[in-house]
């Protein structure tokens, strides 16, 4: 895989000082997954280009990873890693140009601190989301972007374009910033990393994103993709970015993690459509008291609190950290005494009876049941419908049939999902629960309707039958 960086700053050969790599030398650097070669195909006072070539050794790459690595399968040996820019190239570049990325150049510090004319080319780059995503990521950083889709086969135009692009960037940017942006955005465009990600990934992202990521309009998208859709790491990173931008509540929006592998769209996000649908049902039911079971960081609770007709509101979650985020989002510490009496947050697991769950007109389980191991579902049903017995229960969950419409989705929509029901499976489960615990049930769809596959989210509205045991 190949990356070139060109400058027309004069004398252009100063690029060698900034990169700490002499233009007259060909240098090799060993990596755990292959060999990096750095050389200068052109070097004059008017124009200087450095080329970085990464020769990947697939066997060495496979052997350098443990069984818990993301691709422990034949995919370790049969893949595009030897040919297409990816996290491998990002890691290699970050290592070979580490001093340049820091912005330090003792002999040319004024130049290292200055924006200079740069051209960056990557001939083959995986780009999930197509050329548009490359424009969205690089243009806000001041780059003129050329992202040309590469056909699947030049001889067969009808086959269309592949998921790869030829990327060419032109701009006046500080070299250190350009290298750090590439370090983050190469794996973001590929949306795949070759190594196991740990907590230190957040620190790496913060370092490489310093000075530009917090204010980037696609900061959330970049963070989620860079961290491999790991909800826990993403929330930590977004919280840290929010502190830099003084926008904590808006940045922490983990409900969007449920849409992790869905395409970026301009219409109303599915998560917002879910909130609208559930909120409307609660109003239709005339509920006065509502408990959000599995409230997460309180996104939906915020909407409930802003609705005056709900006189009593509670949120519960198994995660104490999520409840801390919810308290921050809802400004619990600044609530009036009257408002504080209206709202309650508490930690609890839905598979264990808890008297605090009882006494509500309606309970909401929004994108919760699919996170429960199937053998534990019966316990959840007994707690929610048998012991707690609210007047109504609203359950939403993904429609597994719809997943085929999401480009690039392999498996389920979220790594923590234990299952994703088809419409028939959801109907069978909801009918069984309603029959067992004396509820009537109505099912609705949420999101764009496909005539064959239904909607992306399915919702069941359970209402207790009159005369059932209190």
TrEMBL record:
Q: E.C. number, please?
A: 2.1.1.386
Q: Name one GO molecular function term.
A: metal ion binding
Q: Looking at its record, which EC class is this enzyme?
A: transferase
Q: Where is the Methyltransferase type domain?
A: 292-393
Hen1 N-terminal domain spans which residues? 1-242
Cofactor(s) this protein requires: Mg(2+)
Q: What reaction gets catalysed by this protein?
A: small RNA 3'-end nucleotide + S-adenosyl-L-methionine = small RNA 3'-end 2'-O-methylnucleotide + S-adenosyl-L-homocysteine + H(+)
Any Pfam family hit: Hen1_L
User: What top-level branch of life does the organism fall under?
Assistant: Bacteria
Keywords on this record? Magnesium, Metal-binding, Methyltransferase, RNA-binding, RNA-mediated gene silencing, S-adenosyl-L-methionine, Transferase
Record bears the keyword Metal-binding:
yes
Q: Name one GO biological process term.
A: RNA methylation
- Give the family this protein belongs to, as stated in its UniProt record: Belongs to the methyltransferase superfamily. HEN1 family.
| Protein name as it appears in the record | Small RNA 2'-O-methyltransferase
**What organism is the protein native to?**
Nocardioides daedukensis
């Amino acid at each position: 895989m190949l990356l070139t960086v060109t400058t027309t700053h004069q004398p252009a050969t100063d690029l060698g000082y900034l990169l700490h790599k002499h233009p007259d030398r060909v240098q090799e650097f060993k990596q755990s997954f292959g060999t990096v070669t750095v050389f200068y195909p052109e070097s004059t006072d008017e124009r200087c280009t450095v080329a970085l070539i990464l020769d990947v050794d697939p066997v060495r790459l496979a052997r350098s990873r443990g069984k818990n690595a993301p691709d422990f399968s034949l995919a370790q040996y049969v893949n595009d890693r030897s040919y297409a820019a990816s996290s491998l190239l990002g890691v290699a570049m970050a290592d070979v140009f580490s001093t340049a990325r820091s912005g330090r150049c003792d002999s040319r510090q004024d130049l290292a601190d200055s924006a200079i004319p740069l051209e960056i080319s990557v001939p083959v780059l995986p780009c999930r989301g197509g050329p548009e995503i490359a424009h969205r990521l690089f243009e806000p950083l001041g780059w003129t972007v050329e992202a040309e889709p590469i056909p699947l086969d030049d001889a067969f135009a009808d086959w269309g374009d592949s998921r790869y692009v030829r990327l060419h960037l032109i701009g006046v940017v500080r070299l250190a910033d350009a290298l750090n942006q590439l370090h983050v955005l190469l794996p973001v465009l590929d949306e795949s990393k070759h190594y196991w990600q740990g907590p230190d990934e957040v620190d790496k992202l913060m370092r490489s994103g310093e000075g530009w990521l917090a204010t980037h309009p696609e900061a959330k998208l970049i963070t989620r993709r860079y961290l491999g859709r790991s909800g826990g790491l993403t929330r930590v990173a977004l919280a840290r970015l929010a502190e830099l931008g003084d926008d904590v509540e808006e940045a922490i929006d983990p409900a969007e993690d449920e849409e992790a592998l869905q395409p970026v769209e301009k219409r109303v996000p599915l998560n917002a459509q879910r909130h609208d649908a559930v909120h409307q049902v609660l109003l239709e039911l005339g509920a006065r008291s509502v408990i959000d079971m599995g409230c997460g960081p309180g996104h939906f609770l915020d909407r409930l609190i802003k609705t005056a007709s709900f006189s009593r509101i509670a949120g519960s979650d198994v995660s104490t950290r999520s409840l801390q985020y919810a308290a921050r989002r809802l400004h619990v510490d600044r609530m009036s005494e009257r408002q504080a009496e209206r709202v309650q947050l508490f930690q609890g697991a839905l598979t264990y009876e808890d008297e605090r769950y009882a006494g509500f007109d309606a309970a909401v389980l929004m994108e919760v049941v699919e996170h429960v191991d199937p053998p534990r579902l019966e316990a959840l049903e007994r707690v929610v419908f048998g012991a707690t017995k609210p007047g109504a229960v609203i359950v939403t969950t993904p429609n597994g049939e719809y997943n085929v419409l999401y480009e690039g989705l392999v498996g389920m929509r979220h790594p923590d999902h234990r299952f994703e029901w088809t419409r028939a499976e959801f109907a069978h489960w909801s009918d069984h629960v309603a029959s067992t615990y004396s509820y009537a049930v109505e099912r609705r769809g949420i999101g764009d309707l496909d005539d064959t596959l239904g909607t992306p989210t399915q919702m069941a509205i359970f209402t207790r039958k009159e005369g059932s045991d209190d």
